[in-house]
């Protein structure tokens, strides 16, 4: 659905989001709520539009210098999948929480090796051991692109501007879930079936 179609549905419940700025704020809040619901439920099918694989399909791999790499600017959440090539064979990089990473880093028994590398994600970078690994394939979920309901006022009134608008990237089932979340935030209850019946 386009923003215009979604706004039409929401307007049937309430006029509170008739202004583009209010619509944009609420719909983007709703899509982030839905995003984190899907991450928490490990609903990778719904998150498919946001999956990025650095190091495949022409997208550059992560480049590490001295065991560190800046996280991609669009990074939001990782899907535990990182590997590098050793003699042409993929070797999984184990992504660990802070405490486990520190324990493995200093362990005299289970320390990181080329065949058992470890990584740890910080707020804006990734740590990787051993430090002689320079490139790694990394799959993650990017931040959803902000939806924009744009208008053109050159006609003397606010007309929907499809060229400058940015629609949600979600499939229709998740768009309906986002509409429900937005309506609930306004104190309005609606079901998926009811919303589908209100489409143009």
Description:
Helix 2 packs across helix 4. The protein folds into 2 domains: 3-43 and 145-197, no CATH class; 50-142, no CATH class. It is built from 5 helices and 11 strands; from the N terminus they run H-H-E-E-E-E-E-E-H-E-E-E-E-E-H-H. It has 200 residues and is of the alpha+beta class. The strands form 3 sheets. Strands 1, 2, 4, 5 and 9 form a 5-stranded antiparallel beta sheet that branches. Helix content is 30%, strand content 24%.
In short:
This protein is of the alpha+beta class. It has helices at 3-11, 20-40, 98-106, 172-185, 192-197, and strands at 51-54, 62-63, 68-70, 75-86, 89-92, 94-95, 118-121, 125-129, 135-142, 151-152, 159-160.
Topology (elements, then pairings):
Blueprint (H helix, E strand, L loop, with lengths): L2 H9 L8 H21 L10 E4 L7 E2 L4 E3 L4 E12 L2 E4 L1 E2 L2 H9 L11 E4 L3 E5 L5 E8 L8 E2 L6 E2 L11 H14 L6 H6 L3
Parallel strand pairs: 6-7
Antiparallel strand pairs: 1-9, 2-9, 3-8, 4-5, 4-9, 7-8, 10-11
The proportion of residues forming helix, as a percent range, comes to 25-40%
Q: Work out the number of β strands.
A: 11
Distance between the termini: 10 Å
Structure class: alpha+beta
Q: Figure out the total of helices.
A: 5
Radius of gyration: 22 Å
Q: Average pLDDT across residues? A: 91
| Shape verdict | elongated
Give the count of structural domains. 2
Keywords summarizing the entry:
200 residues; alpha+beta; 2 domains; 5-stranded antiparallel sheet; 4-stranded mixed sheet; 5 helices; 24% strand
């Amino acid at each position: 659905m386009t923003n215009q179609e979604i706004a039409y549905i929401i307007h049937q419940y309430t006029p509170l989001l008739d202004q583009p700025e209010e619509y944009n704020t609420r719909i983007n809040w709703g899509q982030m709520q839905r995003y984190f619901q899907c991450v928490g439920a490990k609903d990778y099918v719904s998150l498919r539009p946001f999956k990025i694989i650095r190091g495949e399909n022409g997208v550059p791999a992560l480049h590490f210098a001295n065991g560190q790499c800046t996280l991609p600017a669009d990074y939001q959440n990782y899907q535990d999948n990182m590997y590098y090539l050793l003699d042409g064979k993929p070797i999984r990089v184990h992504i660990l929480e802070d405490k486990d990473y520190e324990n493995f880093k200093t362990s005299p028994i289970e320390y990181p090796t080329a065949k058992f590398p470890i990584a740890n994600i910080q707020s804006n970078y990734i740590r990787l051991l051993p430090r002689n690994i320079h490139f790694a394939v990394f799959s993650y979920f990017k931040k959803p692109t902000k939806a924009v309901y744009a208008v053109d006022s050159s006609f003397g009134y606010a007309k929907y501007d499809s060229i400058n608008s940015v629609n949600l990237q979600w499939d229709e089932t998740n768009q309906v879930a986002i509409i429900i979340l937005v309506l609930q935030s306004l104190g309005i209850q609606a079901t998926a079936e009811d919303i589908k019946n209100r489409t143009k």
